[in-house]
Amino acid sequence: MIEFRGVTKQYPDGTLAIEHVDIVIQPRTITVLVGSSGSGKTTLLRMINRMVDPTSGQVLVDGTDVATVDPVRLRRSIGYVMQNGGLLPHRRIVDNVATVPLLRGVAKSAARARSLELLDTVGLDRGLADKYPRQLSGGQQQRVGVARALAADPNILLMDEPFGAVDPIVRLELQTELRRLQSALDKTVVFVTHDIDEAFALADQMVILRTGGIVAQIGTPAEVLAHPADDFVASFIGADRGQRRLRLQPRDPASGRIVVVDSAGRPAGLIEDDHASIGDGASPDVKAS
Length: 289
Ligand SMILES: Nc1ncnc2c1ncn2[C@@H]1O[C@H](COP(=O)(O)OP(=O)(O)OP(=O)(O)O)[C@@H](O)[C@H]1O
Ligand SMILES: [Mg+2]
Known about the structure:
Helix 5 packs across helix 6. This protein is globular. By secondary structure, it is of the alpha/beta class. The strands form three sheets. It has a six-stranded mixed β-sheet with strand order 6-7-8-3-9-10. A four-stranded antiparallel β-sheet has the order 2-1-4-5, with no helix packed on it. The chain is built from ten helices and 13 strands. The chain has two domains: 2-219, Rossmann fold (3-Layer(aba) Sandwich), CATH 3.40.50.300; 221-289, no CATH class. Mean pLDDT is 85; it is low at 240-244 and 273-289. Adenosine-5'-triphosphate binds at residues 11, 13, 15, 17, 35, 37-43, 194. GO terms for molecular function: ATP binding. This is ATP-binding cassette domain-containing protein.
């Protein structure tokens, strides 16, 4: 479990990036931090692995205040996927994936074997192992970034807009893959995006941030759609495509999932229906204001 308790972050230049935030993140779930540019998403994410330290308050991982854990050790135990994959351009794919195991002193041959397994895990051909990042497509590079973050077998995976740079179809593929991976590997995933559709597609829990690093709402996608906390949230979840109106379709009995559609009937996301507040046939409209 990851817990933010009364966390505030003010940067040395006076910028208040996060203001008194409380969040509980359950193990083996996907929590999506969503908000517009500058709302403090990256700051919040980086406080989990101590790339940023809070000004006040505490961040706890499994009950331990991360402030008491050596930052280098902490960072090697938590997977981190950066925007654009963050791959080292002059290292082969296999060595990029093995970065952390090699730093930890794992033998080169064992690290290579593990890297190849991880390429399988994220759905990449092993034939890519000896190529360089620039020889891969954007989507393939993103998958390598995920493989690298998984290399140390962390319980926690932090992902900062990892699919931002790829086209919508590949992005959808990567989202599906991430959901599959998360349930197969039992990781706790904290995922940052400014794309509300992506948030609905992935989240077990959404944390909607407003400018100034203030939490506007925390809830399941179904809760947020059915009961936006205020006008800000209502407009944020509806304003993405002008006058879009998101609504819930009745549950699909075959899959047990609820489909979120926009006013043109285009699916905007899926909700796993284990949320009691939404019953069959409930389709509250959420209007852009
Ligand atoms: N090192 C820093 N020093 C001073 N201010 C910073 C620093 N890093 C971030 N900020 C400021 O803190 C606020 C939150 O930044 P943060 O990067 O967390 O936002 P974000 O939600 O991730 O934005 P984006 O969607 O653009 O990535 C912004 O106002 C930003 O300018
Ligand atoms: Mg950011």
